[in-house]
Amino acid sequence: MSVLQSLIDGIAQGAVFALVAVGIALVFGVLRLVNFAYGELITIGGYTLALTSDWPIPLSLLACLAASVALAVLTERVAFRPLRNAAPATTLVATFAVAFSLEAVWRIAFGVDGRSADVLGGLNRTAISGALDVRWITIVELVLGVALLAALGLLLNRTNIGLQMRAAAADIRTARALGVRADRVITFAFVLAGLLAGVVAMLLTAAAPLVEPTFGLQITIFALVGVVVGGMDNLVSATLGGFALGLANSLLGDILPADERVFLPSFTFLLVIIVLVLRPAGLFRSRSAAGVERV
């Protein structure tokens, strides 16, 4: 495989990881909540695509987005809002509890063998062949990743709700005193996170349509690690961290011999440890900025 081919595939995977990282960082920014249950928003999107695979494609995609957003809002209202003033360790454990509870629900409802969600399987066709082999899904991942991140940047910097989210992220108590409706801002952050999770579910099922109870778990763990590597206190650095980890994971997968790719997560996490030892504040955070800016 050529270096250029590896880079194209790696950048596409990095774009998907970046979308997951943004979803995690948005909620962390306004609520200081590390949401380990984020993968379940991706999983329910995948199962919704499987259940609606015989619907017209636009309706199936809309149902996927709606399911991910609905579960995001439901978990915020039922599980996280009552614990908003609890200790960080308590809310952290709560996210684990929500994740494992929902995974059990998927196992009971859909079994452990997985469901096929072949709604966007046509995107696996080759778009460019020859020296480079590029599938349509690779192009879609790149374009959609850039478009969504740009739209999110515009929303946060050019709209009133974006300004309120940034104010809440900087200091939610002061923002409340100045008239920011915290519940509205936090709910909106969960809605955005759910939308991004639904999009990620579409992209993942287009590349590999089998949806299992742990469908969204692995990419969430990798993206969460990417957020930490990039710097959790800043949305841009967290996004870059997610992108960098996705790119590194893809490139390492291409470099490793086929019989050693089972150790790919080990090599990736070893790289993460080295980065955190050298840059504990985050790979994309300056030491002077650490602890000052949150979104």
UniProtKB/TrEMBL annotation:
<dbReference type="Pfam" id="PF02653">
    <property type="entry name" value="BPD_transp_2"/>
</dbReference>
<dbReference type="InterPro" id="IPR052157">
    <property type="entry name" value="BCAA_transport_permease"/>
</dbReference>
<dbReference type="InterPro" id="IPR001851">
    <property type="entry name" value="ABC_transp_permease"/>
</dbReference>
<feature type="transmembrane region" description="Helical">
    <location>
        <begin position="136"/>
        <end position="156"/>
    </location>
</feature>
<dbReference type="GO" id="GO:0006865">
    <property type="term" value="P:amino acid transport"/>
</dbReference>
<keyword id="KW-1003">Cell membrane</keyword>
<feature type="transmembrane region" description="Helical">
    <location>
        <begin position="55"/>
        <end position="74"/>
    </location>
</feature>
<keyword id="KW-0029">Amino-acid transport</keyword>
<feature type="transmembrane region" description="Helical">
    <location>
        <begin position="185"/>
        <end position="208"/>
    </location>
</feature>
<feature type="transmembrane region" description="Helical">
    <location>
        <begin position="86"/>
        <end position="109"/>
    </location>
</feature>
<keyword id="KW-0812">Transmembrane</keyword>
<feature type="transmembrane region" description="Helical">
    <location>
        <begin position="238"/>
        <end position="256"/>
    </location>
</feature>
<comment type="similarity">
    <text>Belongs to the binding-protein-dependent transport system permease family. LivHM subfamily.</text>
</comment>
<keyword id="KW-0813">Transport</keyword>
<dbReference type="GO" id="GO:0022857">
    <property type="term" value="F:transmembrane transporter activity"/>
</dbReference>
<feature type="transmembrane region" description="Helical">
    <location>
        <begin position="214"/>
        <end position="231"/>
    </location>
</feature>
<protein>
    <submittedName>
        <fullName>High-affinity branched-chain amino acid transport system permease protein LivH</fullName>
    </submittedName>
</protein>
<keyword id="KW-1133">Transmembrane helix</keyword>
<feature type="transmembrane region" description="Helical">
    <location>
        <begin position="262"/>
        <end position="278"/>
    </location>
</feature>
<feature type="transmembrane region" description="Helical">
    <location>
        <begin position="12"/>
        <end position="35"/>
    </location>
</feature>
<dbReference type="GO" id="GO:0005886">
    <property type="term" value="C:plasma membrane"/>
</dbReference>
<keyword id="KW-0472">Membrane</keyword>
